[in-house]
């Protein structure tokens, strides 16, 4: 296995797993200057995973600072290994938020 | 990352090592090891700070506040973040010897921020070594945040802080169940091949194990063999359960 093929955020496991491209999460917006709408993109930090993800579905039309919502997120570039219950942080500019992975929806 | 080792009598072993920064020597001579991960405060380094907070399986967060500058915007943000991520924390107020230090004012400000709804924590000022045990017991409630005052010039408060660090219990590690490690760094070492630094969050892996790495671009996993394992620069065939979660695998 060459260095070039490996990436940060990959996992070492005993048996092959199902990876996640799209997943459901519950998020809490700690800070956002305006509103988060469908199509919003932020960087997700989960363990050593760091990748941009798009908000493809929101419970409401928009989210503001202090809001809690169920959302569907989609990684922009590649699938990652996630487990329900994993905690992540998302950020973009002055935006900060935390979330918990609920369910893996799509693999590819 | 630096390691601080403690002897059986809770004295830092690094002081008596030929090279105080040698992780291997500290590991071999200590009965307890703590890892110190220094993270930047400036907003520009937030992504590195987040990596440290999320990717290293940290047991505790230590917020260092200078008593002349006080708690700034980012300090408040880090406090809020550690609190939302439910990482137990303590605060160290430094430079208390400085003529420009506003120690009391700064501590009151920290206490005010800790009380805010959303953070909702209680400050516990650790004045001397007799308070250390109560501070550690109080932290178990997950609501109490010990505050220390130190000066690295006069040495004031340092013994109390060191005693506290030596007595902190490690977080319970999940050593059973399906092994899971997250790749953090990847190196290509001449003569050794590919080496990965992995944060092991669950389970046990030993030298010679057949494992899978992934997901690759296609979402799949590839089989691989763990040829050797190093922890704190010491070769280990079978890591002791519950040791440092940062393992170096030769694959």
Put the structure in a nutshell.
Chain A is mostly beta strands and 108 residues long. In chain A, 0% of the residues lie in helices and 51% in strands.
Kindly describe this structure:
The complex is a heterodimer of chains A (about 110) and B (about 250). Chain A contains no helices and seven strands. With about 110 residues, chain A is mainly β. Chain B is about 25% helix and about 30% strand. In chain B, the strands form four sheets. Chain B has a five-stranded antiparallel sheet. In chain B, strands 3-4-6-5 form a four-stranded parallel sheet, sandwiched between helices. A two-stranded antiparallel sheet of chain B has the order 1-2. Classes of the chains: A mainly beta (about 110), B alpha/beta (about 250).
Write down the overall mean pLDDT of chain B.
93
Choose one word for the global shape of chain B. Answer: globular
Q: CA-to-CA gap between the ends of chain A?
A: 23 Å
Class inferred from helices and paired strands of chain B = alpha/beta
Spans of chain A of at least 5 consecutive residues whose pLDDT stays below 50 are: none
Q: Give the SSE order of chain B as H and E letters.
A: EHEHEHEHEHEHEEEEEEE
Helical fraction of chain A: under 10%
Estimate the helix proportion of chain B, in percent.
10-25%
Strand content of chain A: over 45%
Which stretches of chain B of 5+ consecutive residues score pLDDT under 50? none
């Amino acid at each position: 296995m060459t260095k070039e093929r490996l990436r940060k955020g990959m996992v070492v496991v005993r048996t092959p797993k199902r990876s996640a491209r799209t997943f459901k999460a519950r998020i809490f917006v700690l800070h956002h200057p305006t509103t988060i709408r469908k199509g919003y993109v932020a960087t997700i930090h989960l363990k050593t995973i760091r990748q941009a993800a798009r908000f493809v579905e929101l419970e409401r039309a928009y989210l503001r600072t202090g809001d809690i919502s169920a959302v569907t997120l989609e990684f922009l570039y590649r699938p990652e290994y996630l487990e329900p219950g994993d905690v992540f942080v998302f950020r973009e500019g002055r935006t900060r938020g935390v979330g918990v992975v609920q369910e893996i929806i799509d693999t590819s | 990352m630096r390691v601080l080792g403690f002897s059986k009598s809770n004295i830092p072993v690094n002081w008596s090592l030929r090279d105080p920064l040698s992780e291997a020597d500290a590991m071999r001579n200590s009965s307890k090891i703590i890892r110190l991960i220094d993270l930047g405060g400036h907003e520009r380094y937030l992504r590195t700070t987040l990596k440290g907070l999320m990717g290293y399986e940290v047991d505790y967060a230590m917020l260092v506040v200078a008593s002349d500058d006080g708690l700034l915007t980012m300090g408040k943000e880090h406090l809020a973040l550690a609190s939302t991520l439910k990482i137990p924390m303590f605060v160290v107020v430094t430079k208390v010897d400085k003529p420009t230090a506003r120690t009391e004012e700064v501590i009151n400000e920290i206490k005010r921020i800790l009380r805010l709804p959303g953070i909702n924590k209680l400050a516990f000022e650790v004045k001397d070594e007799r308070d250390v045990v109560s501070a550690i017991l109080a932290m178990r409630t997950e609501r109490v945040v010990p505050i220390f005052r130190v000066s690295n010039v006069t040495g004031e408060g340092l013994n109390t802080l060191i005693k506290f660090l030596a007595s902190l219990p490690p977080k319970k590690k999940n050593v059973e169940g399906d092994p899971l490690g997250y790749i953090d760094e990847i190196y290509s070492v001449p003569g050794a091949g590919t080496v990965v630094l992995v944060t092991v969050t669950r389970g046990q892996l030993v030298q010679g194990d057949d494992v899978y790495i992934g997901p690759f671009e296609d979402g799949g996993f590839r089989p691989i063999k763990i040829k050797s394992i190093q922890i704190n620069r010491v070769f280990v065939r079978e890591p002791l359960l519950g040791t440092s979660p940062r393992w170096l695998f030769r694959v």
